[in-house]
């Protein structure tokens, strides 16, 4: 998990979700200026580690 948190994009995603705990993937990738595919790869990695969860209407939130 340490490697996962060292990735700057993952850190930025978690920071965005700390600021707004209810974001869609589209909002995240637009905010970061990355492709949807890359954003989805990061979200899947974060979800596998239990750091984020998918909520209603495909919104992501921190998994606290």
UniProtKB/TrEMBL annotation:
<protein>
    <recommendedName>
        <fullName>HTH arsR-type domain-containing protein</fullName>
    </recommendedName>
</protein>
<dbReference type="InterPro" id="IPR036390">
    <property type="entry name" value="WH_DNA-bd_sf"/>
</dbReference>
<dbReference type="InterPro" id="IPR001845">
    <property type="entry name" value="HTH_ArsR_DNA-bd_dom"/>
</dbReference>
<dbReference type="Pfam" id="PF13412">
    <property type="entry name" value="HTH_24"/>
</dbReference>
<dbReference type="GO" id="GO:0003700">
    <property type="term" value="F:DNA-binding transcription factor activity"/>
</dbReference>
<feature type="domain" description="HTH arsR-type">
    <location>
        <begin position="1"/>
        <end position="64"/>
    </location>
</feature>
<dbReference type="InterPro" id="IPR036388">
    <property type="entry name" value="WH-like_DNA-bd_sf"/>
</dbReference>
